[in-house]
Amino acid sequence: MANPPQPSLGYSVTAIPSKPDSSTPQPEKNSVPPPTMLPGASRFPPPKLQQDQIPSPSLQNPKLLSPANGVKTGSLVPHLSTPPGPPVFTSPVRPAAVPFRTSPATPQPVAFTSGSTLPTSSPPHFSNGSIELQHQVPFATNDSIPFEESSCALFSARKVLKQKKLANVPSLGFGALFSPGREIFPGPQIIQREPHRCHNCGAYANFHCKILLSSGQWQCVICHKLNGSEGEYVAPSKEDLHNFLELSSPIIDYVQIGNKRSGFIPVSDSRMSAPTVLVIDDCLDETHLQHLQSSLHAFVDSLPPIARIGIILYGRTVSVYDFSEESMASADVLPGDKSPTQESLKALIYGTGVYLSTMHASKEVAHKIISSLRSFGLNIAEASRDRCLGTAVEVAMAIIQGPSAEMSRGIVKRAGGNSRIIVCAGGPNTYGPGSVPHSFSHPNYPHMEKTALKWMENLGCEAHRHNTVVDILCAGTCPVRVPVLQPLSKASGGVLVLHDDFGEAFGVNLQKAASRASGFHGLLEIRCSDDILITQVVGPGEEAHVDTHETFKNNNALCIQMLSVEETQSFALSMETKGDIKCDYVFFQFAVQYTNVYQADIIRVVTVRLPTVDSVSAYLESVQYEVAAILMAKRTLLRAKSHSDAMDMRGTIDERIKDIALKFGSLVPKSKLHRFPKELSALSELLFHLRRGPLLGSIVGHEDERSVLRNLFLNASSDLSLCMVAPRCLMHREGGTFEELPAYDLAMQSDTAVVLDHGTDVFIWLGAELAADEGRSAAALAACRTLAEEITELRFPAPRILAFKEGSSQARYFVSRLIPAHKDPPYEQEARFPQLKSLTIEQRMKLKTSFIHFDDPSFCFKYVIGQRCWS
């Protein structure tokens, strides 16, 4: 089959000539259309070029929300730090599971070390006759580069303090959020050729580089070394350098589609050719089974005709369903008490059965298999039923790796992209390898749990080595022992999600798990100016052992092996300065190499330049408080491994607020007290939300839920992370519009409807007066549901959407996520919740009397009063 045209890659590709002609028109930019925008799209305002690299000049929340801009949604990396050595990672260092592939034509990836050399404050002039080193584009000077242009890396401040002592104050800190796979609108510039890289440090040519126009040499912004461009950058004037996209844009995607790997599949087939195997719990009660069957039927109907699927059931045995039997549901059965032997797997795979089949050929068979499922028939408690989940996943991996369904027709077709195993679990793994005893009171439980954790992690690593992602979707009332199952999904690059039941939310996540785009073989390289040291990395990756010193002499890049590359992920980077900074700018370059779902090799290069300042006030004004709050929250949650740890971490937030006031606040006249810096007032409110929300507070009850929530947050994208720290509050207005308001309980006005989005759940609250009017209530509820579905359309895992009326028992969940401000003085209420000014006196009195008073302190009394003076 001939390869389809290039647009099927998902890019509008622009080929760059080796020697550009100044008469050539400006290369065309990516034609990916922007998303439908409603008022106030995202809490991180959309940048001019891309969407998730660096925050805009102010991360203030817009007044109105856009429901259409859905929030996009990582595991930890290891602790390794001794200045000025490698950064501290957050989980035990493991060897990279799959070394990143490079072709001979591609410069080799870099080794694992820390910084690079410092750019000078005034760019040096290199003499070559009468030619001087030029800026590559006219707008690449000082502050004329818009800050929003770099949008995949969100920094906690737009400027860097020169003084080491203040820059490294741990209570505030400095760092960045980087989202390697985030979709960007408008799309990044695309180049279909090998990138120019520094021969000394491995950095990529970028739009901050200096160019020698006569020779085409360029100066690296990281190590200052001159590099040749094989004459490509030779140009009569610096304006002609606009023809080179890498010299005119902060974000570049280098795309290589000449894929010669065995198993390469044409682009039109590759994304859907990777099989999905459903591994289903066979120990469910009737009610749960009915909901699961409904979700599975909808899942099968949602798959495209070319999608390949397999179905496996597990209990005490593993049943592998055969799609060649069209008249009835037929399965081959393997024992579940031990790992399958090579002989049994060979007999299964090379037999006559068809265990992976395309939907266009076997859709009806899949429906028959699902309809044939039966509930658990014995009178045994859910937690005590035997489930051989580990063995079932091993069998699923063997089927994916073995000959495909086309074997019987003489065709062996390898999967393109990541294969996916989706486990539908209703209880813990209690039988066979990787299992734990039914009861926690078992005398050998701690040892068996430790053994199970290691076995599950090894199984996940094995899945990752074979480009297979394991997602575990749990539901029901039986605890699934999350600590035992999570290493399997985490090590494979998948997720573990808890649901109340196997109903709507489960079904949505089942479909999203199978269809979400996921790159693989990912390697992230981070290079910084020599003054900057990366001290900690939190995200979905691990240390990468890559030796490229033969290719690059002084490669000091931080290298991270990524378990998967998805737009719902981000890395949180904590940074420090090694000493007082002497130059006017510091540089950061992020380069992520991966293979996308269309089998194209991508290198995304993002280069950021930040100015340095002496003034503390100028630095504080540049602080992006939302990014700073997310970084603080991820560092805090990293230490909150249990409920008791979470309680301790709440106290550290109070100490952090106090220390910021002492280090950066101003002295009260004729006193030793410090005022909290007014530039950071919004930061303290976000930290108050963190302190009392589900991540650290007591809202979440079961430890399984807390563990899943914590792991999701540590790897989540910037948008989802922010919602999980501080929810978005949106009040419905007449005409179907929404106004974004501070997340205060003063929004609970009886004649309104309010949507509260806190990442993993979206609550819709209907006031009592509104609920009494059936017509208005129905219209408001419909508008709120539409909004909730739109803002979560691209989010994975999909959140629950719950609606309830004022005064109902469920409304307590809504109230618990809002800051209690009803007891604050009126002037404080109006200052922090200006919408109150639009209410009449009668309406305000009615609102005040509607609240039930309790002891939970408000933000005003907890922090605002205290912020005014700290000793």
UniProtKB/TrEMBL annotation:
Pfam family, one: Sec23_trunk
Gene3D superfamilies: Sec23/Sec24 helical domain (1.20.120.730), Severin (3.40.20.10), von Willebrand factor, type A domain (3.40.50.410), Zn-finger domain of Sec23/24 (2.30.30.380)
Renumbered residue ranges of the record's region Disordered: 1-130
Source species: Salix udensis
Residue ranges, compositional bias (Low complexity): 113-124
Protein name in the entry: Protein transport protein SEC23
Family statement: Belongs to the SEC23/SEC24 family. SEC23 subfamily.
GO process terms (BP): COPII-coated vesicle cargo loading; intracellular protein transport
Keyword Cell wall biogenesis/degradation recorded: no
One Gene Ontology cellular component: endoplasmic reticulum membrane
